[in-house]
Design a protein that fits this description.
Blueprint lengths: L1 H10 L10 E4 L2 E4 L2 E3 L2 E5 L9 H10 L4 E5 L2 H4 L14 H10 L3 E5 L30 H18 L10 E5 L11 H13 L6 E7 L3 H4 L6 E5 L4 H11 L6 E6 L15 H13 L3 E8 L10 E4 L2 E4 L18 H14 L15 E5 L2 E4 L8 E3 L14 E8 L3 E11 L1 E6 L2 E7 L6 E6 L3 E8 L16 E8 L2 E2 L3 E6 L18 E9 L5 E4 L5 E6 L2 E7 L6 E4 L7 E9 L7 E5 L13
Parallel strand pairs: 4-5, 4-11, 5-6, 6-7, 7-8, 8-9, 9-10, 10-11
Antiparallel strand pairs: 1-2, 2-3, 12-13, 14-32, 15-26, 16-25, 17-22, 17-25, 18-21, 18-23, 19-20, 19-22, 23-24, 26-31, 27-30, 27-32, 28-29, 28-31
Helix pairs in contact: 5-6, 9-10
Length: 601
Amino acid sequence: MRRLLLLLALAAAPAAAQTGPLVAGPGGFLLDGKPFQIIAGSMHYARVPREYWRDRLEKARAMGLNTVTTYVFWNFHEAVPGHYDFSGQRDIAEYVRIAQQVGLHVILRPGPYVCAEWELGGYPAWLFADTGIVLRSTDPRFTKPAGAWLDRLGRELVPLLASHGGPIIAVQVENEYGSFGDDKNYLRWQEQALRHAGFTDVLLYTADGDVQLPNGTLPDLPAVVNFGPGDADSSFARLARFRPGEPLMSGEYWAGWFDQWGRPHHTTDAAQQTRELAWMLGRGYSVNLYMFHGGTTWGLMNGANIDGGRYHPQTTSYDYDAALDESGRPTPKYYAFRRVIEQHTGITPPPVPDTPPPIAVPAFTLDATASLWDNLPAPVHVDRPRGMETFGQSYGDILYRTTIRTGASGQLVIRDVRDYVQVYVDGSLVGTLDRRLAQDSLPLTVPSGARLDLLVENSGRVNFARPLLHEEKGITHSVTLAGRTLTGWDVFTLPLADPPAPARFTTAPDGPAFYRGSFELSNTGDTFLDLRGWGKGTVWVNGHQLGRYWGIGPQQTLYVPGPWLRRGRNDVVVYDLVAPAHRTLAGLDHPILDELHADAR
């Protein structure tokens, strides 16, 4: 009987998801007073080109999903304190409206901590300008800007709650807090901040791993459990014991995994995931596939993890081995999940939208170059190095320069390396230090009067667990040479939001530099820019920053969405920390996400 009621409820769902509030009833969820099984998938508006939002959401509906879940990224909307941006790619309200138009409900996960393999878990880096701040706590230096952010977000999204005629049926409180701490006062503040922002007549809930449920939950809010393949039975059993009689839902079922630089590309067992999805649905459990579609972490917004005591930054591609691949193409996993959902619900989903084939772009040359050294901004003089956030910088590179008055020979020691440092003496590269490899020193001989440059890349802030509390970037402590502390530094901030102006592309460098070129198209389409032979840096195409590349892999291509290209001339700028093996690029009709090079630069 319960299965019949669920099928009837699903069949009666209107084309546009417009309902009353979701309720956590005894034994299950109720929507408009009827049993409702959530069959959801995660897809983040910030990782999908706005031009493709509708296509991807229609594909979610065509797979049989009735709900889409999305995080909201605080640092994506408030890059500068007090200045909020909800335009263009950041128009999350439009994303939610399109979801409703294609027949999907929405579960909102506003954090403001979100993890998500996203820079600092979604927190804006400018919070670290106050060096004493304690993130993810009741420290008023944190709660004041966090509360203001949630209030501003509420103005965008509260009108789209289901109780107001919109598609948002539930809102998550914080995110996997049990993996971080157990401060119930902080959790309660988080709940109250959401309510203050207007998220009142909507279901609020918490989400944690099964072992962390006691730490990350509040007694009066429903709890859901997050887990990966193979753990469904044990995780649901633990949730049922923890909250007897309450709805059982997987807040995240990890149907894939993310990649990190220098480590193998992840592929997962689609057959196992399909069997487990069928098992969950057959028992009436609600589920959210994480990810349904991963997409791309554009720009410099990738996160990082501390794993085994080592720092590991994530790749630009967030393909995640998901049902839809990075460029929105259905995979065999997509069709397997689609069959399982259709068999369970008895409802034939809409047809799968067509996906135009990707295109290849013939090789072209980037013949205009500009040395980084010739494009430095005005410096700030300080006695000792300090983190980039204290200079008003969040992302990109930062250069620390000093003159060695008295020659010295010994170990150059940098505390701390955050995250990748190139060491130059009088303009010549003499070594690198990589936080991934726990490197913080090298032997160095410097003559009197020589210029020492430390070019530091922020490779992405940690997004998970307690290490994120101390993710200031640049040089955060000190620099010593042969045991002597170096002082008197000029600091150049290099946020890399935009490349240099075209008129400044003039020189022929052999160190860190910008490279510019163009290619012609008669017809546009998705393509994958081949960065093999290049070193380490970032790319802009027609002003869109595609993300990071690094020759070590496993990712060797950058996804270029067709709507970001144009007929006729397309402009490309590459910033590379080292001179490339060649100054040519090409667009492939397929990605390369699984090519590791241990000896790459």
